[in-house]
Amino acid sequence: MEQKGSEKDKERIGAEEKIFCRRKLWKLPGSAMWKILIWRIITDTLPVGVNFARRNIQLEIRCNLCGNDGNSTETMEHLFGDCEISKRLWACTELGIRPSQPHSMDIRKWIMQWINYLEKLEEATSRLVRFMATLWCIWCVRNRILFKGEVFHPNLFLNSWCQEVRKADEVVLECNKDRVKRTHAAEDMGDERGKWLRESRPFFAIGASYNCECIRIMVDAGWKARDKASIGWVAYAVTGHLMVEKYKAIKAESALQAEAIGLREVVLWAKEEGRWHVEVSSNCLPLIAFFAGLEKAHHTTKEILEDILALSGSFHCLSFSYIPRATNKVAHSLARKAMTL
Q1: b/e for 120-150, b at 16 or more Cβ within 10 A?
Q2: Tens of pLDDT along 18-41?
Q3: Straight-line distance from the first to the last Cα atom of the chain, in angstroms, rounded to the nearest whole number
Q4: Which of the listed residues 141, 177, 226, 309 has the most CB atoms within 10 Å of its CB?
Q5: How far is CA 179 from CA 22, 125, 183, in A?
Q6: Topology adopted by domain 198-339
Q7: How does pLDDT run across 126-169, given as a tens digit for each residue?
Q8: Pairing between strand 317-322 and 277-282?
């Protein structure tokens, strides 16, 4: 007996796709329609020709953009990448996207990787919304041909593209206004920002419940030279009793990088131990400020912090809080002990 379509759809959605949708897709700037389209692509529920055929629905399965010869089956990979018409549109976006022929990657991973890449570039907001607007433009023109019986003409794309670009520009403008407001608000806060951090209020990488019963890990690092660095940490159960004390020698380019390595090490340990509700405490204020969204990552710690954010998707609740050095004496003494190894 065949499974129901919904159960088959669930099987096609991997852990990577679930994490991407939950943690990133819905937070992207832009129209909800753009994000719903991407969500349907990632979940493989977009009603393209090949999906009609898979569900035994007798409809046209050729590409409605370039399939006049009847040989181009409408898959998501073809529609958004391989189709000669779509390729020309991508070439006009100045995003540097040149889909291969044939498409060498699953369209879901292709979209996720481009979004992950574009958000790291300068003017990331503008690039992201234009990327999503282009996907939407391709889909809209396809639907106009299929459901309204319009004949393909470059003006179809031109009109749709201009309309979506205007929307994209409006999104970028609103995002820039919001960023200015946040900057002014942070400036108005002045010392209040530091006060918030120093009060040890947690900042969540994932989850947001202050009522979570979390194990608490306190971590510290020591550094004298690249080959003379160390980390130490101590973990306490929800009940407050000691779970484990650990320390090790490491290599680090700076004291800040050593502290970042320490944070990554405890997050890895928690994941390996299957501890899914965790609060990590450190006396390194710049790193905690990064998780609070108040400071950018230093170039020596950027990759390490990105690793931590990637790992955070495995947890139900993961937070970071600042504690003074005086409160972190156990982890500090363990780091000093590791320095002698």
Answers
A1: eeeeebbbbbbbbbbbbbbbbbbebbbeeee
A2: 888 888 888 888 788 888 999 989
A3: 62
A4: 141
A5: 23, 11, 6
A6: Nucleotidyltransferase; domain 5 (3.30.420)
A7: 888 889 888 988 888 888 888 888 777 777 777 777 777 777 77
A8: parallel
Say if residue 209's pLDDT is above 80: no
Residue pair 30/128 in contact (Cβ under 8 Å)? The answer is yes
Check: CB of residue 129 under 8 Å from CB of residue 172. yes
User: Do residues 327 and 319 make contact, with C-beta atoms less than 8 angstroms apart?
Assistant: no
> Domain locations in the chain?
5-187, 198-339
| Two tokens, residue 146 | 């299929």
- For residue 161, the Cα-to-chain-centroid distance in whole angstroms is 27
What's the whole-model pTM score? Answer: 0.49
Integer Cα distance of 340 and 249 in angstroms: 8
